[in-house]
Target: Glucose-6-phosphate isomerase
Amino acid sequence: MTKTTNNLDSCEAFAQLTALQPVGNLATLLTPQRVATAQVAMDDGMWFNYAAKAVDEPILQALQQLADEQQVVSQYRQLLDGAVMNGSEQRMVLHHLTRGQLGADVVHGGTSLRDFYQQQLDRIAAFCVQVHNGEVRGGSGERFTRVCQIGIGGSDLGPRAMYLALAHGQRSQKQLKLEASFISNVDPDDAGQVLAELPLSRTLFILVSKSGTTQETLTNESLVREALRSQELDPARHMVAVTSETSPLAQSKGFLTSFYMDDFVGGRFSSTSAVGAAVLMLAFGETVVKEFLAGAHQQDCLALNPNVDENPALLDALIGVYERNVLGYPATAVLPYSQALSRFPAHLQQLDMESNGKSVNRQGQAVRYATGPVVFGEAGTNGQHSFYQLLHQGTDRIPLQFIGFLREQGGSDRVIQGSTSQQKLNANLMAQIVAFAKGRRHKEANKVFVGQRPSSLIYAAQLTPRVLGSLLAHFENKVMFQGFLWNINSFDQEGVQLGKMLTQQVLGGRVEDDALDAYCRLFQS
Ligand SMILES: O=P(O)(O)OC[C@H]1O[C@](O)(CO)[C@@H](O)[C@@H]1O
Model:
């Protein structure tokens, strides 16, 4: 029988891992041969390189044993087959099914859910053709030239990061069909600024909310409808909805049409469902989105391999657990050397921290070990001129996740002072990996770099739609595997509820807590 409930600290392999001697010196471990060979293929010419991670052969073997003992790949298979992996909410976890079938046919209420997700993608594709060819137009009869997504959290971060990752490349290839904008924050300045810049008569809005009840999104929807009406445009001709079939939004009539996802796709895992597909297809067309989904599916296939040296997401997850639970590192920095990935760290913050920021296990008992790390990041080289000081010389050791590409997306690179911008970018990336790992001696104490700062590198020739899908799924699967290793439920998010409840008390004038009441008075003036 499959054992799925072990806490990390009750695993024999974890005890063995803890007893192993950590790598003494990362600088000597990082040989040229290791740089060339310590990597796992992610397909499509993409690699996960762990040469600069402080893991040697005995540690890797113990990590393999830990993966085996926790049966993480078998848990992944159960998830694919439709097991209820989100126990607290009694839900299946089916985001992998939005991009392909890998397990059993998952049927709910008499419907094959793979068919359901595919039908929604097909409906979105058909709608996008009508928008692109001008059959569907705005209230004044003009063609749509812009799209604007209203949503927050998973209904914003992933789709926005994916759009930004592809927009410049698609624009340079003259493939950008509609420019996209996003409204997420309930701060009136967010909607205010975006609406001021949009040609409303030519803008199609996508209202995205799985629950259909999110305060920020519904508030922004009202602001958008008001703005449309103020220009004598019928909001129902300018707005589509993406929601779950059971949400209150699904009953609303005020939309051109609605596309659906369901409760088995968590918000932060929804970029490959209708939530991400609607804006991406409107912006780039169906072919690009199919490529993106194929890349994600490819990583899902690789994640089935039980051998850690052939399963990049699992290896990444295991090294992360080693760094968190044996070496005691508190955080992880995501550092894409690609401006196109400027919002990718923000997406990963939600993906990782909302999934694995948990302190009880799947049986509801407190765990006695660290779980998800703090995740933050910034596109290189901008981060270098910001927080890298602390990463190099601060008192905490923070593992780093570099991402890089051989070529840029836009085809505008040229030589300036002996090197192209892309060459400069990648020179910085390579230099940082070595500086972090090896450090530098110096006679003045403040100029010493102790090194020993581990990093990994995901790299590919270019950030194409397929590579982007791969990257996204790699991190989704890494987070899933870490949740299995920690024996926590990565698929609920109760930690967001208390703040929402207190906010309702403030807005409803029913504050029960005296400190909150005092804060209310501060904001009255
Ligand atoms: O899509 P919805 O239901 O509006 O939710 C938005 C976000 O709110 C949360 O439920 C909690 O903040 C996220 O998990 C989710 O991505």
About this structure: The CA atoms of residues 54 and 393 lie 18 Å apart.
